[in-house]
């Protein structure tokens, strides 16, 4: 049985008021069952979506936000620009990108955030000192989750 034949059977079943239908052709057996609370509907055309172009992700710049309350005077929060898993190290056995007290330069990698199997480097938008690291390695974060408390240099 070809796919188009199977789709035609399902379409015909959807156009009927039948609650259940069994069909056998050779070694292929089809069993369709409609649940009582499901509405009887005709088939609708499949939605057409434009093709999606895939691109290599660029490093993600770290937005500096002050919405979260920093603990030190003159401190700012660097928050997650995306939803994903934070990796503080480039590899499981490697040292962390940054530690508390480290001064980093603009463009230096602070951490990696994995989103949908894509590794996005979070880079410093300005020269700063890392006052506090607010996430653990491999911690899941939401958009806007505070990651680092920093002071501009």
Tags for this entry?
OB fold (Dihydrolipoamide Acetyltransferase, E2P), single chain, 5-stranded mixed sheet, 153 residues, mainly beta
Helices and strands in order, then pairings?
Layout: H1 3-14, E1 20-25, E2 28-33, E3 60-61, E4 64-65, E5 76-79, E6 84-87, E7 103-104, E8 109-115, E9 118-123, E10 128-133, E11 139-141, E12 146-152
Parallel strand pairs: 3-9
Antiparallel strand pairs: 1-2, 4-5, 5-12, 6-8, 6-11, 7-10, 8-9, 10-12
Overall description:
By secondary structure, the protein is mainly beta. It has two domains: 3-33, no CATH class; 60-152, RNA polymerase II/Efflux pump adaptor protein, barrel-sandwich hybrid domain (OB fold (Dihydrolipoamide Acetyltransferase, E2P)). The protein has one helix and twelve strands. The chain has one helix spanning 3-14, and strands spanning 20-25, 28-33, 60-61, 64-65, 76-79, 84-87, 103-104, 109-115, 118-123, 128-133, 139-141, 146-152. A five-stranded mixed β-sheet has the order 3-9-8-6-11, with no helix packed on it. Strands 4-5-12-10-7 form a five-stranded antiparallel β-sheet, with no helix packed on it. The longest helix is centred in the N-terminal third of the chain and has 12 residues, at 3-14. It is rod-shaped. The chain starts with a helix and ends with a strand. The mean pLDDT is 82.
